[in-house]
Predict the structure of Fasciclin domain-containing protein.
Amino acid sequence: MKIAINITRAIAYAIMAIFVINITACKKLTSYDYPSATGTPYEIISNDGNFSTFKSAVDKAGLADMLSGKDEYTIFAPTNSAFINAGYTAAVLQAMLSADVAVLVKNHIVSGKIDVNTLSTSQNATAVSGFSLNLQKIGNLKYVNGGDILNPSMPVTNGFLNVTNTLLTSKATLNDAINTYVNSGNAQLTYLAAAIARASTGSTNFTALLTGTTPYTLLAPNNGAFIDGGYATIAAINAAAPDVLGNILKYHLIAGAKFTTAFDSVPVTAYNGNPIYFDKVNRNISPTVTQATNITAWYANGITFGNGVPANIMAKNGVLHMVSRLLPTPVTVTTLDRINTDATLTMFYALIQRASTADPKFNFATMLADPLHTYTVFAVNNTGLQAAGYANVAAINAENPLTLAAILKLHIIPKRINNINIADNGAVTTIAGTNITFLLTGGFKVQGPSNSTSIPVITPNVVTTTGLLNIIGAVIK
């Protein structure tokens, strides 16, 4: 029987199987693209284009028989994007020795059957190459070395197959991991490599840090991050003061080797002593969610990193996660305090206080001061509230709290969401359950469902200890 797997549908069926079985009782399920336990791992990766790179690697390594035999294995099959994100283009794999490709493939194979669905919290496993794997269950989601396991424990004829969006490999050093990109044709980190070399001529030798034995986690800014940060060319980086670059790098470096799964709503101190604030949005397991969006997303100061972009790239001295912007410097006060100390936001602060009396489930003042539940806030300045009909703070205090609460809910989004993480004209859901639109062409703007025109963001993406603040000059409605 020919096996034609479509990953997205496989995920959907895996989730819905128990419901379908209950409904159909003994009726044969002929609609399965993936009949349970009827195919070998090699048949699966051969018939699904999402694994074409992994299949090529298996063939070059001479391991097709291993994945077609009767010995039991647990396999973590990386998608094509997992290879690309880790810097392994087709050209890189073609240039590698077959023996090295065999090691890479074996990193993804564990002898015996491990059903990751039965994990309690965390379990270590050793691949047949000797590579160490960390399997985690957090909530109802599963991870391997920090990467999503997209459809866990699909039964195959000789064990289990798991799909992952992370390549399981390691470099000798973080510096080598960076150079993998520089030399692969997937040159996303050439500016970073130049910045490390230039900064190392100053007071801190970053090359020594990233090639040493002390482990670090590097939030690695890609080329676009440096360009957006004012370094238009490599020449601009080479002309910059070494310690200026060094201060940037220090804020992207964290002590210890940490997978993405180590970060969730708890600030972490960077190498320069300043905090980095983290948020996590779990992937949405749903039959209607496509593979491309069915990932866990992490945010550092509102900047996305993790499984949608290169992340969890291991080295013997740490882990690398790529970020698409230089991390913005935070203000070390809560969102509520930042609003309270802004002379242009006195009326909005009063609105928060007044709206907080409407419903004990939505004490907005408490919410915006709570570091365990972060929010992105669009704060309307005094001019904007006056244009909406509120003459002063007294007028705010005289308004029905329920009316103000309804207004405020349209101005608050769960988690720190930087506008660079949203596509132009992208919809973002507020705590009211209503979507607002981010418009990015010609500057960052936002628009509610009843706004006739978009509202420019005057001050964007201020990182606070409890969220992210944007200041606007009109009311979202």
